[in-house]
Amino acid sequence: MRVAIFDFDGTLYPQETFTLMMNYMKEHPVHSRKYKSFYRALMKPYLAYKMKIYPENKMKAKSMQLYLDTFKGMHQSEIEEYFEDMSRDMNKDLNSKVVERLQKHLIDGDHVLLVSGAFTPMLNEVTRDYAIHNVIGTEIPVRNGIIDTDNGIYHIQGERKNEMIDKALEGLDIDWENSSAYGDSISDITVLEMVGNPVAVRPESRLKAVAEERKWEIIW
Fold first, then answer.
1. pLDDT digit string (tens) for 116-132?
2. Alpha helices, H only, 51-133
3. What's the maximum distance between 2 C-alpha atoms anywhere in the chain?
């Protein structure tokens, strides 16, 4: 069985979802009052990252955690509705070239996975019109129906993507040499290296250099 693995931010969706999340909170009729305290908390890890004293992967995970922390005490159904409302129109902005590839893989009978650090309710809403076999994102921790901010999120990025892909495909006979993966960032490289047909999508400079050196396909 062949698989086709898609990243989301910068690949299927051409922008960074965290910027969208920030703007949505800032303009939200109910939750906008939380924005200033969230923004102040965010500045510490962000500035440390810009000063190169805090790793990018930790900064991204911390940023996602801080965002979720602002909804402490919210019921699970409320936070899922919040992300679903935010994501409802995002499918209009998907990268059409990547969507065409995704649809072709589905038609060809490939097992399609979407793997991203974005929150799972957002991914589910954006891709609801596509028969993706596995949507793997950052889960929102819940206890007794309430968001559990006491336990940190397990942010899906880097080699954690590989871990979750292996878990989703456990027990299946995968033809890795004829499988495909799509990503835009150097952080996607461990996933791209899993398959025989890696595709760099509008790659940032570090991934572009690797893709050109290894003669990988590039989609602009």
1. 999 999 999 999 999 99
2. 56-69, 76-87, 96-107, 120-126
3. 51
Could you give the CA distance from residue 126 to residue 13 in angstroms, rounded to a whole number?
9
Within 10 angstroms of residue 210's Cβ, the number of other Cβ atoms is 17
> What is the number of helices (H) and of strands (E) in the chain?
9, 8
Phi, psi of 118 (to 5 degrees): -65, 160
* pTM exceeds 0.70 for this model: yes
Q: Which amino acid is at 131?
A: A
Q: Is pLDDT of 150 > 90?
A: no
Distance CA 105, CA 110 (A): 5
Q: Which residues contact 213 (CB under 8 A, 6 or more apart)?
A: none
- Report how far residue 7's alpha carbon sits from residue 22's, in angstroms, rounded to the nearest whole number: 21
CA–CA dist 188, 3 (Å, integer): 16
Q: Which residues contact 18 (CB under 8 A, 6 or more apart)?
A: 9, 60, 63, 64, 67
